[in-house]
Write a structure and sequence with these properties.
The chain is α/β, with parallel strands linked by helices. Helices cover 42% and strands 18% of the residues. The structure holds coenzyme A (COA).
Length: 532
C-alpha cells in the first residue's frame, strides 16, 4: 500500500486560482440544482397544498430510511431542451435505502405540468430502468402523472414502451417493481401500476384508467365517473389492479416501506463496516483541478481525497505513466482504479488492458477516471501501432464483465472517452464534475480540422476560398462544438447520471458501489480479438 504525501500547496497561487474557478462553476451548478428542485410554479404548489397533498421530494423523504445516505440521479436532464418542462423533467430519481434495502425511487412531480412525461423524463425513465436491471435493484414508482406530454408524444412513445418492456423483464428475473399511486395514471401511465409486481393505491385520490370519463363518453357513449373507471376502492375491490388500499399519502408510503421489509432482506455490508475515511479534506479537490484543462495535474492528488485511508496500491508505477492503475477501497468496497494522467500512449493503453484482465480474474469492479484528450497521434506513434494498442484497450473495456463506474473530472474526448468507458460503453454509473467536457474532439481542434478539409477540397476543385466566410464559419463551428461539449449540454441529454459537486465524490461512489456489490460480481477471460 502506498500512502502518498500530498504535494498540494493549499496556500499557493495555483491552488487558490483553481479553487476560485471551480467554486464559480459549482455556483452555476447549484443555481441549476435550484431550478431542478423547484417542483412547478407557485400557483401549482399552492393548489397542491390546498388539496392537502405532499410534493414529490416530501414523499421521497418519508419513504427513505432516516440517517442513511441517498443520492439524486439525472437531476439536470432536459436542462437545455427547448419545449421541455425544465431541468429534471417531471420525475425525481433517487438511489437510497428503504427499510434497509437499497432501492431506486422514481417519483412523478405532479406539480410540474401534472407530471406529464416530456422527452427528458422519458430519457430519465429509460436510464433508471437500465440501472435497475443491471444492478438488480428494486424500484419504487411514486405515481401521479398526466401521462405522455402530448406535444412530445412522438419522442416519448418508444422510450416509454422500452421502459415497460424492461419492467417486465425485471419482474421475470425476480427484481420487483412497486407502484404507489397517489393521483392520476391515465392511458399509457396506467401500465406503470399495471406492470408492477405490487401496487398500492390511495383512497379517493388514485385514478387509474385507460380513458377518463370524457373519452369514454366519446368512444362508447357510456356515462361513468372517475371512481367507477379507475378509483382506488374500485381497483382494490373489483378489478384487482390494486393490492393495497391506503387511507392517505402517509399510509401509502408506510405500506410501501412495510412491503419492502417483507419482500427483501436488508444486506448488512461487511465491507462498509471496515470503511476508513480519507486522510485529506475533500474540499481540497476544488484546488487541484486546473481551470485550464490543458495544464496537467497529478490524478493521485484527487484519488487520495476520496479513497479509504488515502491508501492505494499502484500497478506498474514506472510504465505507461499517463495511465494510473491502482487498487484501493471506497467506503470499504474494494475497487480497481484506472485514471488518466495525460494523453494515452501505447504503453498506457497496454497497462490499462492488462489491469482490466486482472480485475476480471479477481472479480473486482473498476472505476474509470476520465481526463484525457484521447490517444497520442503522430508518425512515430501510428507506426508503433497506437491503433492496435488503443483497440486492445477498447476491446478490454467492452468485453470486461465486472461492473464499471465512470467519473469524468475534466476532458473526455474521442476514442479516449470510449477507452475510459464513456456513456456508449455502458458503465453501471457515470458521474461528471461540473468542469467536464466531452465530445469527438476539442472545439478549436474540430474547427481547425474543418478549415483544413475545406481548403483542401476547394483546392482540388480549383475554387477560390472566401477567407472572410471561412473565418466566420470556423468561429461558428468552434462556438457550437464548445457548447455541445459542455457539461450542461451533455447532462441535459442524460449522457451521465448526474453532475456532482466534486466534494461529494466519495458519497456518490459509495452508493454506486453499494449498488454494484449488492449482486454477484463475475469477471470474464473472454474478450474480442486483441490485434497484436
Ligand atoms: N400533456 C401535456 N400537458 C399536460 C398533460 C399532458 N398529458 N396533462 C396535463 N398537462 C398540463 C396542463 O395543460 C396544465 O398546463 P398549464 O399549467 O401550462 O396550463 C398542467 O399540466 C396542469 O394540468 P391541470 O389539468 O391543471 O392539473 P390537474 O391536477 O387539475 O389535473 C390531470 C391533472 C392529469 C387529471 C389532467 O391534467 C389531465 O386529465 N391530463 C390529461 C391526461 C391524459 O389524458 N393523458 C393521456 C396521455 S397518455
Amino acid at each position: 500500500m502506498d500512502e502518498i504525501k500530498s504535494k498540494i500547496d493549499v496556500l499557493g497561487t495555483k491552488y487558490i486560482e483553481n479553487y476560485a474557478s471551480m467554486k464559480k462553476i459549482i455556483n452555476e451548478l447549484e443555481s441549476y440544482f435550484e431550478v431542478s428542485r423547484q417542483e412547478g410554479s407557485k400557483e401549482q404548489i399552492k393548489r397542491t397544498r390546498k388539496r392537502n397533498k405532499l410534493l414529490a421530494r416530501e414523499k421521497i423523504d418519508l419513504l427513505l430510511d432516516d440517517n442513511k445516505p441517498f443520492i439524486e440521479l439525472m437531476s439536470l436532464a432536459g436542462l437545455k431542451h427547448e419545449g421541455g418542462f425544465g431541468a429534471g423533467g417531471t420525475t425525481v430519481v433517487v438511489l437510497g435505502y428503504v427499510s434497509g434495502v437499497l432501492c431506486l425511487i422514481n417519483a412523478n412531480v405532479a406539480t410540474r405540468k401534472a407530471g406529464a412525461i416530456d422527452y427528458a423524463t422519458s430519457l430519465k425513465n429509460l436510464r433508471l430502468s437500465q440501472i435497475a436491471s443491471e444492478n438488480k435493484l428494486l424500484t419504487i414508482n411514486l405515481v401521479e402523472s398526466g401521462g405522455a406530454n402530448l406535444p412530445d408524444q412522438d419522442r416519448v412513445f418508444n422510450n416509454y414502451g422500452k421502459f415497460f418492456m424492461e419492467m417486465s423483464q425485471r419482474s421475470k428475473q425476480g427484481i420487483p417493481s412497486i407502484s404507489v399511486v397517489f393521483g392520476n395514471a391515465t392511458a399509457g401511465g396506467a401500465y406503470v401500476p399495471g406492470m408492477s409486481d405490487y401496487t398500492i393505491m390511495q383512497k379517493n385520490n388514485a385514478k387509474v384508467f385507460l380513458a377518463g370519463p370524457p373519452l369514454v363518453k366519446m368512444a362508447t357513449n357510456e356515462d361513468a365517473n372517475d371512481e367507477e373507471l379507475g378509483g382506488a376502492f374500485m381497483h382494490s375491490s373489483i378489478s384487482g389492479v390494486s393490492d393495497f388500499l391506503a387511507d392517505d399519502e402517509k399510509h401509502a408510503i408506510k405500506i410501501a416501506r412495510d412491503l419492502v421489509s417483507k419482500i427483501k432482506k436488508p444486506k448488512i455490508s461487511q465491507y462498509e463496516k471496515e470503511a476508513l475515511s480519507p486522510r485529506f479534506v475533500d474540499d481540497e479537490i476544488l484546488g487541484i483541478i486546473p481551470s485550464n484543462l490543458k495544464k496537467p495535474f497529478d490524478i493521485r492528488e484527487l484519488i487520495m481525497r476520496f479513497i479509504d485511508s488515502s491508501e492505494y496500491t499502484e500497478f506498474k508505477e514506472n510504465y505507461g505513466k499517463t495511465m494510473l492503475c491502482c487498487w484501493a477501497k471506497i467506503n470499504g468496497y474494494p475497487i480497481g482504479i484506472i485514471a488518466n494522467n495525460g494523453v494515452i500512449f501505447i504503453e498506457s493503453a497496454r497497462k490499462a488492458t492488462h489491469f482490466i484482465q486482472l480485475a476480471n480474474k479477481s472479480n473486482t469492479p473498476l472505476l474509470f477516471i476520465h481526463n484525457t484528450t484521447g490517444f497520442m497521434v503522430g508518425k512515430k506513434h501510428e507506426q508503433n501501432g497506437m491503433i492496435n494498442s488503443g483497440s486492445q484497450l477498447i476491446h478490454a473495456v467492452a468485453g470486461s464483465t465486472v461492473p464499471h463506474i465512470s467519473l469524468q473530472v475534466g476532458n473526455s474526448y474521442g476514442a479516449g472517452n470510449y477507452a475510459m468507458c464513456g456513456r456508449s460503453f455502458n458503465p453501471r454509473f457515470l458521474f461528471s464534475y461540473p468542469n467536464a467536457k466531452s465530445g469527438v474532439m476539442g472545439a478549436d481542434q474540430l474547427a481547425g480540422v474543418m478549415e483544413i478539409v475545406k481548403r483542401k477540397s476547394a483546392m482540388s476543385l480549383n475554387k477560390v476560398i472566401d477567407e472572410n466566410l471561412l473565418l466566420e464559419e470556423k468561429k461558428k463551428l468552434a462556438e457550437q462544438a464548445d457548447k455541445k461539449a459542455s457539461i450542461w449540454h451533455t447532462t441535459s441529454e442524460v449522457w451521465d447520471d448526474g453532475v456532482i459537486d466534486p466534494r461529494d465524490t466519495r458519497k456518490y461512489l459509495s452508493l454506486a458501489l453499494s449498488a454494484v456489490y449488492s449482486s454477484e460480481i463475475k469477471g470474464t477471460d473472454s474478450f474480442g480479438v486483441f490485434r497484436m
